[in-house]
From TrEMBL:
The lineage of its organism: Eukaryota, Fungi, Dikarya, Basidiomycota, Agaricomycotina. Its cofactor is heme. SUPFAM superfamilies: Cytochrome P450 (SSF48264). The keyword Oxidoreductase applies. Keywords: Heme, Iron, Metal-binding, Monooxygenase, Oxidoreductase. Heme binds at C389. This is Cytochrome P450.
């Protein structure tokens, strides 16, 4: 068995309190570094209220979970129940035949031809950037996460259907994340009501035309597979979560990093101006040729992956292979197996001594051959294996398009810390902490996806 994290309290109550406090007030997953310092390694066993969990940041074991031993892991009934009222039986919250059904009916819509038409991105990016410039000219700072969230929500809802419920969706995700931290005891916290149902309310049932035609929405496409309104609603919500939140967070963190590293911003802007110019709309071929842009996005996804923590449940007893001359690990059936690409992406033994430094060149220089090529599972911002993200290229395109349009019009960006609510700023006591905890000026929040609050002001606008 993997080493057991010691907790003297019954039910590991002190560990439970530490995890909840880290979720509310701490820097994402920082408590895990303490486990490593106490020689538990990169995989350990702990129990929360007597519920067995095996946590790992080991790429070989994450590879087993996602790919090589895929059949031994599932989302599982407990997670399904926790997420049911927001994600239902959708692709992110289903197993077995139901998962295969959702995957099969959604996959055709993410073909290269469909995700390479940028009319939706162009329309909503123009709207967002025009409003950004108007706001900045009036002398106000702008909350970039809010702007990016509205851009990706507008794009995603046009891609799916015309319906906006950003605020309720955000709150529903926060409540769902608390459920997973509380483990199997979560229903006790919601004895009298289902908080997510109260937040989301009764959403409209999707409806649409059965005819298949050019320009159809994803909803039009899905209706060709099923008339079940619940299945349709669940899948739309699942794809909306992927299409809105993950890309919004990536855009926000990328802009935050560009503000913190003006030399990288100038180099990226130079590539954009050379490849696309000051006003031309970028094409798929442009994006394919912009190596530094992809490196900036990849480095953002490495340090700030959209889904920093994830979880599976063993569907049967599993044996994980031995590592570094040690013994294999045995996992009993029906055990929870959380894993973190956020923490794995920051391991210095996997990425080098500068793993905490934002450096897009690591995806262009000899560090690719040294670290990534021999072990590609050290970089998993979109998961891997049979459940790899169907929208991976869609996300790259949307993020690339927005950043190109932004830097065609802005020559520099300033981060205005005093414009942020105090609760969104890193506390002074974090300043000398190791890693990005000591350098980040904003608090990271991890719900179902990673988010942050950050505001910017006008520095230099190219009109």
């Amino acid at each position: 068995m993997p080493p057991v994290v010691y907790d003297p309290w019954p039910g590991s109550l002190s560990l439970f309190r530490m995890i909840i406090d880290d979720f509310k007030n701490g820097y994402a997953g920082v408590y895990c570094y303490g486990f490593q310092l106490h020689n538990y390694g990169n995989t350990w066993n702990f129990k929360i209220l007597w519920e067995n969990r095996f946590f790992t940041i080991e790429p070989e074991y994450i590879k087993a979970i996602l790919a090589t031993q895929f059949d031994g892991f599932e989302k599982g009934p407990v997670l399904h129940e926790q997420l049911n009222t927001i994600l239902g039986t959708g692709v992110f919250n289903s197993d077995g035949e139901m998962w295969k059904f959702h995957r099969a009916m959604t996959r055709p819509f993410f073909s290269k031809d469909r995700i390479s038409h940028f009319d939706i991105f162009d329309r909503h990016a123009s709207d967002a950037l025009n409003q950004l410039k108007t706001r900045l000219r009036e002398g106000y700072p702008v909350n970039i996460q809010d702007l990016a969230s509205r851009f990706t929500m507008d794009s995603a809802t046009e891609f799916l259907f015309a319906h906006d419920f950003s605020r309720a969706f955000d709150e529903a995700q926060r409540i769902t994340s608390f459920r997973s931290r509380r483990g199997g005891s979560w229903p006790l916290q919601e004895f009298w009501s289902d908080k997510k149902k109260r937040e989301l309310g009764e959403q409209e049932k999707p409806a649409g035309d059965r005819e298949v035609r050019d320009g159809e929405s994803l909803l039009d496409h899905l209706i060709n597979y099923t008339d079940d309104e619940i299945v349709l609603r669940d899948e739309i919500l699942n794809i909306l979560l992927a299409g809105r939140d993950t890309t919004s967070n990536t855009i926000t963190y990328a802009i935050y990093m560009l503000a913190e590293h003006p030399d990288i911003l100038q180099r990226l802007r130079q590539e954009i101006l050379e490849k696309v110019g000051e006003s031309r709309r970028p094409t798929f071929e442009d994006m394919r040729d912009m190596k530094y842009l992809r490196a900036v996005i990849n480095e953002t996804l490495r340090l700030y992956p959209a889904v920093p923590f994830n979880i599976r449940t063993t569907s049967k007893p599993v044996v994980l292979p031995a590592k570094n001359g040690g013994k294999p690990f045995y996992l009993p059936a029906h055990s929870k197996m959380p894993y973190s690409v956020f923490l794995m992406h920051r391991r210095k033994d996997l990425w080098g001594p500068d793993a905490d430094v934002f450096d897009p060149d690591r995806f262009l220089d000899d560090r690719v051959r040294k670290y990534i090529t021999p072990n590609p599972f050290i970089f998993l911002p979109f998961n891997a294996g049979p459940r790899i993200c169907l929208g991976q290229q869609f996300a790259y395109h949307e993020t690339s398009f927005f950043l190109i349009r932004l830097l065609q019009q802005f020559s520099s960006i300033s981060h205005v810390l005093e414009a942020q609510p105090p609760s969104s700023r890193s506390p002074p006591e974090w300043k000398n902490a190791p890693g990005t905890k000591g350098t980040d000026k904003v608090r990271i929040k991890s719900y179902l996806t990673m988010s942050m609050m950050v505001r910017f002001s006008r520095s230099s606008v190219v009109l």
